[in-house]
Structure formats: structure tokens, C-alpha cells
Known about the structure:
By secondary structure, the protein is an alpha/beta fold. Helices cover 45% and strands 9% of the residues. It has helices spanning 3-12, 44-66, 80-87, 103-108, 118-121, 130-133, 144-158, 185-196, 216-219, 227-231, 243-258, 288-295, 299-310, 315-337, 346-349, 357-370, 382-385, and strands at residues 19-20, 95-97, 173-178, 201-207, 210-211, 214-215, 235-239, 264-269. Strands 1-7-8-4-3-2 form a 6-stranded parallel β-sheet, sandwiched between helices. The radius of gyration is 23 Å and the shape is globular. It starts with a helix and ends with a helix. 41% of the residues are buried.
Amino acid sequence: MSRSRTATHADAARPTDRLLSCLDTTGHLHTEPELPAGVAPLDLKQALLQMTLARRLDTEAVALQRQGELGLWPSLLGQEAAQVGAASALGVRDVVFPTYREHAVAGCRGIDPVDLLGLFRGTTMGGWDPAATGVQLYTLVIGAHTLHGVGYAMGVVRDGDVGHGDPERDRAVIVFLGDGALSEGETNEAFVWAAAMDLPVVFFCQNNQWAISAPFSTQSRVPAAQRAAGFGFPGVRVDGNDVIACHAVTAKAVARAHAGGGPTLIEAVTYRRNPHTTSDDDGRYRHAAENDHWTALDPISRLRSHLEGLGALDDEWLEELAAAERTLGARVRRGCRELPPPPPDQPFLHTLTAMTPELARQREAHLAFVAGADGIDGADRSEERS
Length: 386
């Protein structure tokens, strides 16, 4: 290892616990020395639109679950700024590895909101085309997708798509995770390998303070961003309710990955204001006052106050926003109920890239069983029983 590389890594691994922020709770924009203005311009009205529509989708989905139309829904309430800020910093060729709560990220990448519902209605194992959208399918196993993202990043390097200084060619992988995933072995293995191989990965941790019923203080004695130092790459803490700061730190980390600088861990400090999922009762483990505190820090209200202060929101634009919300709500309600049941052999069709003879045999047996044949292998067992 060269001296310069050693120095670079040592500098990159310096621990930090300072929270970067640009937009305060009243909507006032201030200077952040580590995030110079203009480095990562963001369309603020578009960000407000994306955050507002993501919240409307979330509200509708929770209601649909309560009506029995969805089996489960993991709410993102309060995390809109972190997700929109990060997603809006990505290039078209960058690839997203989500958990199961990145509904605003999906919206920014053009995924139909109705397609997000199928997994939770039980009509599909996925819902969209990862190749077309640059967003891999939701992963329900905590932390498992961090290794998937690192493996994909190895492929990006082997394709030679890093370090050219060409935005049309350089690519990065962004892996979204929650604070609970930091306690999983897979996540730590992913950090080790990403560092060892200098992979173009941005780990974007939405620290929403609770891993189901376990508070972050139980999971870690140091800020999540400080953990990166132990693996030898930079860790950054950012106000997760500040869409401008989230966008800026992500753009900086993605640019570093594109240039061949290796991985970055971003800790977006935010809060999960709804239960972990609709099957959870958060009243058993946290106080309402805590939720009230974070409600006052609402990311949408903060950005809206800033834009109103600039005089950027006129009545016509606000009415268009309200109309877009209403249209989305109606579309989500109707689209959810119209999701078609899957064909019985759907899991067989997407297990492998090509159907093997054994898988084809199992598929035919399953179809025969569904059609009414007696026995999972399609054989008639009536004589054996008699």
C-alpha cells in the first residue's frame, strides 16, 4: 500500500459525531461549512412535491391496511426528507438497494405507487422491474441486502464503470438501511468487504431511533456514523429531516464513489413517527411526548416554511399540489383493489434466469395440484388411500 493511500484512508476514517444541517426547524437556511451552497443544487419545489406525495401514499396505504386491503404496511412517516434528499442526488445509472420502507425513494425513481402495494397485498413477490428503474426489489430480511449491494458494486468495478470522471459512465450503488440493520452480521460483513475492495458504495442509514421496540441507545454506544471509522471509510452524520443537507451529503458521497474513492456511511438522524409496521403497537414501548417532539421537527413543514419565506409558493402551485395529492389518493385506492391475483406458477418463472428441467417438473406438478390433481407431485393417490 502506498504512503499516499495510507494517509488518504486514515484521513477518511476520522470519526465524527457532528450533525450537518442547512435548514433549521423554522425553515431558515444557514451556511454549513462542510456543505458549501451550490455544490449540490436541489430543485426545492420538486423536493416538496415528492415528499408530500410520499406522505399521501403512506397515509393511504395505512388506511388500506386497516380496511383489510393490505396484509401489512411499513410506514415512512417522518423520513421523507432523508429519502427524497438521498434519491435526488443519484444519477440515472446509479443503483438502489432498498429495505422495505423506501417508498419516497421509489417515487423519485419513477416507480408506480400502486406497484409498491402488491408485495403487501400478497399479489407479487416484487412489483417492478429492477433493471428498468435502477431500484432493486424490497428486502424483508434485515441487513441481507447490504451484501447484495456490495456484490453488485463489485460488478460495477469489474465492468470498469468507476473513476472516469464521466457522469455518463461512472456508477455507484446506494444501500439504504435502518439503524437496526447495523446490529446484523451481514451489514458488518458488507462494511468490511466494501472497505477492503474500495467499492463504490454509499451506505445510507436512516437512524429513526427505534429498531422495532429496541431504542438506538440499546443498539449502539456511539453515533452510527462513527462506526465507519472502525472499517476505514468516512462516516457522516446529517440531519435526516433536512432535505437540503441530505441531498448535499449524498451527492458528495456518490461523487466520491464515482471517482473510485470507495464507500461512505451516511447516518441520517430522523425519527419513525408511526409504529414499525401496522402490526406493531408502539404504545407499549415509547411515550407519546417523544413523538410530539419529532412532529415539531417535521421535514415537510420545514421545507414548506422555507419556500413560503422565499415567496416561491403561490396559490396556483399549492392548488396543483393539492390536486396531485387527491389524484394520487384515488389512484392508490382504486389500483390496490384492482391488483390482479398472480398466476399460480409465478414463483417458478422468476426463480432462475432459465428454467431447469427439475424446476419445470416441479412447476408442472404444482399447476396440476392447483388444477385439482391429488398430490403435490401430480400423482393420483386415491388407490393408495383405499
